[in-house]
Amino acid sequence: MRSQVAIIGAGPSGLLLAHLLQQAGVDAVVLEHRDREYVEGRVRAGVLEQIAVDLMDRIGLGARMHREGLVHEGTNIAHEGEMFRIDMKALTGGSTVMVYGQQEVMKDLFDAAEDRQLKIVFGAEDVQLHDVTGPPYVTWRSGGEAHRLDCDFIAGCDGYHGVSRGSIPEDVLRHYERVYPFGWLGVLAEVPPAAHELIYCNHERGFALASMRSQTRSRYYIQCRLDDRIEDWSDERFWDELCVRLGDKAAAGVVRGPSFEKSIAPLRSFVAEPMRYGKLFLAGDAAHIVPPTGAKGLNLAVSDVIFLSEAIEEFYRERSTAGIDHYSARALARVWKAERFSWWFTGLTHRFPDTGAIERRLQVAELDYIRESKAAQTVLAENYVGLPI
Ligand code: FAD
Ligand code: DHB
């Protein structure tokens, strides 16, 4: 088998790239080792920056998102029972974010992939990349048979645990990493959200976040210990802890109900650079992870695939390697700023094992400063809605 591009992974990066390349007339095959139900069923991101909204429109898949998604013009920060609002729209000259779950994005991408006959191989086992400095090829097994795909380029869109990053020699790839000493316990419940915008909460007992998927479905997170187990957290314990952390005012809006999803996610800052080696390009979580506090992960996948599709399109249209040569530097410039923001926002809102009396007072001072300073709020707002691409 042959195609111009082999895409490893059918998560947001891989499928968005596949749609963009098809639109540009570039032939691609996506190799995904799980099935559609698994990829679509993972409860992950909830907040789309304007660039992600624009991309869904550009590939002709924005209709349901505009109908069902919730446009948020502001977000709230709570601490010590106090709450203040960051008016993102006013502070950024009109930018907003869209609350539309990653599961919905994936459903739209998969439905359209069927209609448009994108080539996706599900259940691809033991995917291996060969001769990535070119001419490259990919091998895998499915249905008990061995397969081979020859291509011009490989897009490694296979997430943090994928195989692509490992195909770059160790002496070329540089890793930067911080693993945070806590996790996020997330709950989904079929109850109306606590407020009509998100609430990021710093509390002595740890971070809490009130988010949502729709007017009738809430998504909540609380900071938890890394050794906590889901079984330790009954719904009742979760709701009690959430309400304590949110404080009386925000907790008054919490509607309790049975959870239908509960999971613990570790937090990590990670960047692997460069994002290109020979004919192999990394995109999305395969190259970088942010702690989820700033809602940046999926949005970084979006900017990566925009840059990468432009570079590949330019190569076939003009036979120029300028875009390809610049891809890693261009993507990383945006990645590092989002890494910085996510790291900063995590530090501001979480309780660390070494958060002593002075660190706590400094956090509270910074939160007070943000509440009082339009300049500080503008910095937060312009990062939250997403820096330009
Ligand atoms: P992935 O989603 O990891 O997809 C990779 C795909 O590759 C998967 O389908 C996997 O099955 C496949 N794959 C892996 N290995 C192989 C292999 N060897 N062969 C073939 N296929 C393979 N981001 C935001 O922007 N906003 C948020 O609000 C937000 N909240 C989050 C909350 C949580 C709890 C979590 C965990 C994440 C959150 N994120 C958020 C991050 C976001 O979900 C990820 O950044 C995003 O999924 C990255 O997409 P990706 O396609 O690069 O990687
Ligand atoms: C959600 C996740 C985030 O990490 C975040 O910052 C905001 C919202 C969510 O899943 O709804």
TrEMBL record:
One BP annotation, GO: benzoate catabolic process
One Pfam family linked to the record: FAD_binding_3
Domain of life: Bacteria
GO MF annotations in UniProt: 4-hydroxybenzoate 3-monooxygenase activity; FAD binding
Domain FAD-binding: 3-342
UniProt keyword list: FAD, Flavoprotein, Monooxygenase, Oxidoreductase
SUPFAM superfamilies: FAD-linked reductases, C-terminal domain (SSF54373), FAD/NAD(P)-binding domain (SSF51905)
EC number: 1.14.13.2
PANTHER family per UniProt: P-HYDROXYBENZOATE HYDROXYLASE, TRK SYSTEM POTASSIUM UPTAKE PROTEIN
The name this protein goes by in its record: 4-hydroxybenzoate 3-monooxygenase
High-level lineage: Bacteria, Pseudomonadati, Pseudomonadota, Alphaproteobacteria, Caulobacterales
